[in-house]
Structure formats: C-alpha cells, structure tokens
Amino acid sequence: MTLQNIQDDLSAADTLEPRAKLFRGLGDPSRLAILDALLSDERSVQEIVTQTGLGQPNVSNHLRCLLDCGLVSRRNEGRFVRYRLADRRIADLIRDADQLLASTAVGVDACRSYTD
C-alpha cells in the first residue's frame, strides 16, 4: 500500500461520520417537510406551519436543529424571521433523492431495515 492509498483511506474515513450526520439530519420526516417548504422560496415560521401542517413548536424546534447544522439560514425582516436553504445544493440533493426514489421506490418502501 502506498502513502497515497493510506492518505486516501484516511480521508474517506474522515468524511464518513459527517456524511452520516448529514443523512441522519435529513432522515426526519418533519425536517424534510420543512426543507421541502423552503425549496422554492424563503418563509416565516407561520408560513412553514401552514404549508407543512406541523405544529409551531415542532417547526421551531426542527428549524433550530437545521440552523445549528447549517442546512438553513435566517434573515430578519422587521419583526419576522425568514428562513431559507443555506445552500442551493440542498434543493438539488432533495430533487436527486426524489428522482432516485422514482426508480427504486418499491425496494425502498419494502425495506424493513430502516423503519422506526
């Protein structure tokens, strides 16, 4: 094994835990609903509540998590706070997941390994 192979293996291992954290963060239906609500435009908490049907405390808690993890950002607008995706690649990731599901949905739906 060469030094380059060892460095590549270490680099790959270093990305596994953050990648797993990212997917755990995306693995909650409420957080995904909030991200879906933010795909097209920024929104206030009340707008997210209306669009998702989630309760206001639930939305606020999940937004705090999404903010802490860097997946959403916020902007003050007068008395209100507007939330948006922190990076447009998050929207791309969600759209890519939807396209992948379109071709693998039966297998994913049948999978019992990842049920709650």
TrEMBL record:
<dbReference type="InterPro" id="IPR051011">
    <property type="entry name" value="Metal_resp_trans_reg"/>
</dbReference>
<feature type="domain" description="HTH arsR-type">
    <location>
        <begin position="11"/>
        <end position="105"/>
    </location>
</feature>
<dbReference type="Pfam" id="PF01022">
    <property type="entry name" value="HTH_5"/>
</dbReference>
<dbReference type="InterPro" id="IPR036388">
    <property type="entry name" value="WH-like_DNA-bd_sf"/>
</dbReference>
<keyword id="KW-0238">DNA-binding</keyword>
<dbReference type="InterPro" id="IPR011991">
    <property type="entry name" value="ArsR-like_HTH"/>
</dbReference>
<dbReference type="InterPro" id="IPR036390">
    <property type="entry name" value="WH_DNA-bd_sf"/>
</dbReference>
<keyword id="KW-0805">Transcription regulation</keyword>
<keyword id="KW-0804">Transcription</keyword>
<dbReference type="InterPro" id="IPR001845">
    <property type="entry name" value="HTH_ArsR_DNA-bd_dom"/>
</dbReference>
<dbReference type="GO" id="GO:0003677">
    <property type="term" value="F:DNA binding"/>
</dbReference>
<protein>
    <submittedName>
        <fullName>TrmB family transcriptional regulator</fullName>
    </submittedName>
</protein>
<dbReference type="GO" id="GO:0003700">
    <property type="term" value="F:DNA-binding transcription factor activity"/>
</dbReference>
